Every structure is written in structure tokens, then in C-alpha cells.
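S.,

As promised, the flavin-adenine dinucleotide run. Input:
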Amino acid sequence: MEFLSKYFKEFYTSRDILEKYSIDYAYLSPILSSKRKLPKAVVKIKNEEDVKKIIELMKEYHFPIIVRGNGTNTLGATIPIKEDTIVLDITSFKGFERKGESITVFPGTEFNEVGINDLPLIPTSFYMATIGGFVEGGSLGFGSLKNGAVWDNVLEVEVYTLKGKYTLNGSDVYSVVQSAGTTGILTKVKIKLVRKREGIEILKKSFNSLSEALDFSLDLLGEAEFISIRNYPMAKEIEPETTWGKWNVIYGIDSEKGFQLRDIVTTFAGAYFTVVSKTKLPYNSVDIPLENLNKIDTQECYIDAELSKSSGQYFSHTYFIGCSNIPMIGKQFNLHTYKINDRVEEKRLKYILDFKRKVDPDDLFNPGKVDF
Ligand SMILES: Cc1cc2nc3c(=O)[nH]c(=O)nc-3n(C[C@H](O)[C@H](O)[C@H](O)COP(=O)(O)OP(=O)(O)OC[C@H]3O[C@@H](n4cnc5c(N)ncnc54)[C@H](O)[C@@H]3O)c2cc1C
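Predicted complex:
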């Protein structure tokens, strides 16, 4: 792979760098982290010309690649699992332009750089994630209760594949969104904007029963940017100094008081991630229709129900930590598999699989992460 150093100034093969790029935030999962291999080399990609060059070289030398943003995904999406993988660090490929009701962004741009006031949704990792990484690997976040999931808000994507460059819009964007880099290199994305928020205020309310917490939350739908329903153990673990009830609703609404960013980060940023890191307990999540949410009523383990909307449907993205029984009252969102088949819903998965078969039959883009 030394030939790559002829074309790219930033080309790395030292052991410490390869170690760093062999793992992402999936270090939390013993199952996922046990699968990692060292990449062969790391290359920094700075612009579209670099992407074109890599594609040319892939065609000639037939090597596998993984594109990497800031590596904050928790699902092993940037862990190499095949030998001889080249990791492309795309974090220097930055820039964005707001025009009318949309924003067009180069993939390495971070949420911090764009500002979060008018984006329809942002991941709770907004202080460290790239926008390209969120589009390729994320799903829900602040704002998704009002505005839907990432795939509901992407208007257009530009992607480089071994069969050429594609500009996709309408439902064709599903071929790329949440595909974890398995269908090509995302070079540009156009996202809907929403009315500028002046701020988000975080409020908390405690209840003696789950049914009261649910009734209160259902009344907030349409008004809140996010709602998280936590049982006592979960709420206490995240914020030990607050007095909590059996069930607690933590919610964010638009406010003239500005953004309580610190609160947003400490209260919400990967709440399950924080609790699992502290307790080391087993964890998983289930997407539960709201009408079944009354069945999660226990204080014996940690539960966090994050209300969301995807393709017009409300549901709860629910984390269970240390629970001996996870109620199967929805669709499991498996947090211990890197295969996107296990989390992308059928309708959108079909777009990804069809596109993958067309542009990458040899599985060189993030190999092993999708069965097709
Ligand atoms: C504390 C914490 C909170 C989080 N909160 C949320 C949340 O609220 N909602 C949510 O959905 N996720 C959340 N996540 C996980 C989340 O998916 C990421 O934080 C974010 O979406 C990934 O951004 P990244 O730049 O780190 O991408 P990476 O992890 O580097 O990459 C993610 C995927 O995208 C691919 N990729 C990246 N760039 C490109 C490109 N240009 N072309 C092709 N493929 C590419 C990668 O190969 C990988 O498959 C959280 C994680 C943490 C640690």
C-alpha cells in the first residue's frame, strides 16, 4: 500500500495511529470490539479531488476502504473487520453553504461549525460528530420528535462509487443514508432547515407512576424538541444530585432563554452510554410503539425511553440496561451488531441493498458491514 504515499501527503502506517483507527465508540461493546483488526494504513482525504484519486486507485488495486468521520458511532461502523483495509479520515473535507430553506455540507463538517439553531435534528453527540458521519451512521436526535429521523430530512446526496459519481434525491437518498459507508464515499449532502430556534430550555417533572408520566409526555408531543422518560435508577445515575420520582420526564422546548448547551450535553449526550460506562452492565434497545410503552414498568434495572418520530410515526427508542428481561413489545435495535441489516427498516434497506449490488458487488466499501 506504500503506493498511496505517492498521492497523499497525509498517509500513516505507524502502529499507534493504526491502533487509534481500529476502534470507535463501540469500545463499549465487548462483542463489537473483539472483532476489530488493525487497518493497513490511514489516509487523510481533504477534498473531492482526493476522493476521485482514491476511487481510481481502488479500481486499479482493488483494496477495501472505510471512510471515517470522528469515529463516535457506537456500533462498530468504522472498525475494520477485513484484512488490508485502508481507513480514509474525511474530517478535513469541510465547508457548508446555507441557501433558502436548505444547507449543503461537505462531509467532514462538524455540527459545531454549522451551529444547531436551524438544523431539523442533531445527535446528542453534536459537540463532536461530523455531519457526514451522522447522515451515514446516525438515526435520531434532538428535534426528531418534531422533525423526524435523519432520512426524513436529507434532500440530496452526492456519492462516489466504483461505478461513477451519483447525485441522488427524493427517496433515492435512502440508498446512502444510514448505509454506514457501505455504498460509496459521501462528498456532499443537502439537508432541510427549520425555523431558527432562539434556544432550548430543559425541564424536568417527576411522577409516582409510569401512566402519569406517559399522559404528561403525550400532551407534549408536537411542542417538545425531545422527551426522555426515565425510571428512578436511570434518572438518579445520570443526575445524582436531583430529587427524582419513580418515573421522570425530561424534556426540551423552544425558549427565548437561549441554548442550555451544557445541560443538553450532561443530561442527554448518550445517556445510555454514560450509564453503561459506569456500571458495565449488559445493554440493548427496542423501538416501541407508544401504545405499548406502559409495559416497561419496572424499577429493577435502568430504563430510558426517548420519544421520537420516523417517517411520520411516533415511537420510543428505549434503552434497557442491566435488565434480566427485555420486553419484546417492539422492534429490537441491536446495539451489538455492526451489520446494518439488523437496524435499517425493510423499506429503506431495500434501497441500500439494490444500490450496493449495482455499485459495489465486490464489497470494497466498508466490507462485511452489510449482507447483500
Ligand atoms: C455520547 C454519544 C451520543 C450519541 N448520540 C447520538 C444520537 O443522538 N443520535 C444518533 O443517531 N447517534 C448518536 N450517537 C452515535 C452517532 O451515530 C454519532 O455520534 C454520529 O452520527 C457519527 O458521527 P461521526 O463523525 O463520529 O461518524 P463516524 O462514527 O466516523 O462514522 C459513522 C458511519 O458513517 C460512515 N461515514 C462517515 N463519513 C462518511 C462519508 N463521507 N462517506 C461514507 N461514509 C461515511 C462511517 O464509515 C461509519 O459507517 C452518539 C454517540 C455518542 C458517543
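The radius of gyration is 21 Å. The chain has a mean pLDDT of 94.

- D.
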